[in-house]
Amino acid sequence: MRTPENSADLIAAEDVLLFANAAITATGQREFRSGALDQQLSLDFLHTYVRVNYRRVYAASLALDINDHNAARIVLGLLETAGEAGAEERRTEGRLIAARLARLPPQRVYRLFGEVRRAGINNRRTRAIMRDWLAARPDLGHDAVKYRSGVKTAARHVHLRCPQGAEPLAEVGAFLFRPGKLPRYEHPLLDAWRRAHYEQGAVAELPFTVAEGFAARHGMKREVFLKRAAPRMTRLERLRTHAVAQRPDVDLAVMPLTRLALYVLALPFEQRAARRAELTGALRTAARRAAGRHAGSWGRVHAVLDDSFSSSGSGQKRRRPLAVALACHHLLEVLSAPGAYRGLWTSGRGDALLVRPWGPTPLGMRVLDALEPGPGGAAPDRLVIVSDGWDNAPAGLAGEVLRVWRARLDPGRRTAVVHVNPVYDADGFDVRRLAAGVPTAGIRDAEDLPALVEIARFAEGRTGAAELHAYLDRRVALFLGEDDREEEKETVS
Q: Are strands 430-431 and 416-421 parallel, antiparallel or unpaired?
């Protein structure tokens, strides 16, 4: 029988895992089965609950693989309630905030600084954090052109000193607060912005998002503009333009795995079939890069992959759940031993490149198939289920199959079972689970799968809050560079 202390520890561990799953998967946007308002209200409650009851864990979450939306919300929450923390807590939080801001996309940080200003958070520590981040930017002139309102808001809030003269910071100050006062700028982008008002040739020198507005003002043809702007476009901007899909020279293999899966699923079936070798090769290359040192280390792996109709996502997250499943399919193939991987789609399809959201979710039947012994009569070492958890053909069969398997056929846990879920369930304040004894983790990007499998083991109920806090402390140490070991996670620059 559990003592009250052990019960409290178990509840604390469950609360922490619940918040981690939400912070990884939820973005406050509409999902297939819940609206944006439901998502936002659910997240609001979770952030407040965890910040008030587990502030140390709330801050430590910045060191986990949470999504940018929740990272920004945590930073805002910590800054807004700094008075609730002790001096040592504030020092640790300040370091975590600075480290996380350095990893966030700049547009997300400038948006966060705008929220800080609107919330009236203007204490000395907040201004110092903002000044340090601005000082670390590689080219503030570039930011002033591309994120003008964000830079202007941040500079005003921290009272950034912009001296007179020819210094770079002085030019940025004149550009932001005294436009038109200088006849020309030494910084090439600032001067290109000035010339783009009356000179078409300067438009192509600007960042793509800024150049689009000037191109429309000058009445430039879209095809001509895209051709001129191509050298200055980011990879994501190239993929987003209509012409990119027709360009055979685009190196898709450098794209992150989940982003590449989204791109592949957006193509018509005819293009996917015609470009099969190119697309499959790119997905496998991205998967090998994402697997890193874990490649080939998972032994025999069987996977159940959800391509039911609900994997179509929503208007704001189109095909996101299916893209995660497709990316996990290729990643698991690399993580397993050579020739020891078996992927089963809920629709029964055998061609991963041509999957589409269709039909019900017969997870139970596919789990039965996945637990069948592979070549040589050996059961899989790992069973990975990638699904939103809505098992409905028939309902609840997957959970019952897994319960009986664990209780009667595999009590020794020779086969490790893990469920990763890319969809946040706003009503349940968590990702939907298949069965109580099956560890479940939220997932947003397939690249995080190895780390998420590690944290999912805490959801089995066999470990308590002490082990979970020790794990969080290790992640914080790695995140802040306090450990001699470096986290061997390859990223795409």
A: unpaired
